[in-house]
Amino acid sequence: MASVGSARQAAIFRAGLAGRRPRVPVDPARLEAEALLRLGADARAYLAGGAGLERTIAANRAAFDRHAVVPRMLAGVARRDLSVTLFGRTLPLPMLLAPIGVLELAHRDSDLAAARAAAAAGIPFVVSSQACHPLERIAVEMGAAPRWFQLYWSSRNELTESFVRRAEAAGYEAIVVTLDTTQLGWRPRDLDRGYLPFLRGKGIANYVSDPVFRTLPVEIAASRRRGPPTLGYLRSVAELLWSWPEGPVAAWRTGEAARAVRRFVGIYQRPDLTWEDLPFLRKRTRLKILLKGILHPDDARRALDHGIDGVIVSNHGGRQVDGAIAALDALPGVVEAVGGRVPVLFDSGIRNGSDIVKALALGAGAVLVGRPYVYGLALAGEEGVASVIADLAADLDLTLGLAGRANVAGLERSVLRSTAGAEAGAG
């Protein structure tokens, strides 16, 4: 029986005999380039951009280059096992689809397409708080497949509690609390365009469908517009009305769409969140809780002290702090601090199978894939996301075999050599 990688290669080459090339590029650079050409300028800025000079995005990639895989010969590993176990569930691949908001900027089927592709592959989809469909609707698309819910902890605890309660009822298996975005980082690409999708009603489906959210007061006053409406203003209003789930007529007649946006803007950031808030969440859910955005070993230790079930090493794909430590450089220090007591997952910068091998060898239990699947979504919807997953799995399988390893669960640092004295993380 052919391995996952060999089978994928063979299928692509057979299609090539008939003159058919992959609809979704296999090469990560071409995948990104073609997807960005397909997207509008606002979507390109939001989905591909980062904080400041985008040095953290570059640092994430450079960190992978500081580690080299050392191939081993004659290892007799014709069959490879790519599975991992997380919280008692065996996954066929050591990867999850990362939470990314406002996926409708990439494709009209947005979260639903990504959810179906993840379910078909048997891997978890981490549904964003800023999804374009309610979390219950996304759960229906996934059936019995594993799904996690990413929580942006708002300034209203009653809304946070409602989100968690809804996730439990819809069959989600874990809550991923994103800690590094309690307020938006400085993102020049979005700022230069004056574009924040939430102000146009995009990416707030979980909020407007929430019974608690709809009872919250509007906490900020509407900005006063002076003079006649401009074409740009009218276009923004139309975008907001068409984004409303009950349709533009209802949004215009009731005025609820505009109120919902003002309500969202008033509550979605939570810069005063502290470690002392975590017991509130722990008491309100039986689900596993993971903290996403951990980069310092001391923060990992504090997470354990608070009974957290897992941590995700991430710098938000370089979208929050310019010049931050690369996530891969932070990984070994966090792994050491955790000491195997809870799973450590990795996010930020994964682009191919070799990257996955490196993250796993440095101690990650699994990785989260972000922008690549969004680019696949932009090019071909559900099929595009499925292609990206399949290509990553194939590349991982072949890299694993060529490195002389039979399974991803057994990867350790001996499979790597440092090429430039990479840092092991602060602390």
What does this structure look like?
It is a single chain. This protein is of the alpha/beta class. It has a domain at 41-189 and 270-418: Alpha-Beta Barrel (TIM Barrel), CATH 3.20.20.70. The protein contains 17 helices and twelve strands. The protein has helices at 4-17, 28-38, 41-48, 55-65, 110-121, 135-142, 157-169, 188-193, 205-208, 231-243, 248-254, 256-267, 278-282, 297-305, 327-338, 353-361, 371-402; strands spanning 67-69, 84-86, 89-91, 95-97, 125-127, 147-151, 174-178, 288-294, 310-313, 344-347, 366-369, 416-418. Strand 9, helix 15 and strand 10 form a beta-alpha-beta unit.
How do you describe this structure in short?
With 427 residues, the chain is of the alpha/beta class. The chain contains 17 helices and twelve strands.
CATH topology (level 3) name of the domain at 41-189 and 270-418? TIM Barrel
Give the beta-strand count: 12
Mass-distribution shape: globular
The residue fraction in helices comes out at: 40-55%
Structural class: alpha/beta
Strand order of the largest sheet: 4-11-10-9-8-7-6-5
* Total of helices: 17
- How widely separated are the two ends? 47 Å
Q: Approximately how much beta-strand content do the residues carry?
A: 5-15%
Task: Work out the oligomeric state of the chains in this entry.
Answer: single chain
The CATH superfamily of the domain at 41-189 and 270-418 is identified as Aldolase class I
Give the class-level CATH name of the domain at 41-189 and 270-418.
Alpha Beta
Gyration radius, rounded: 22 Å
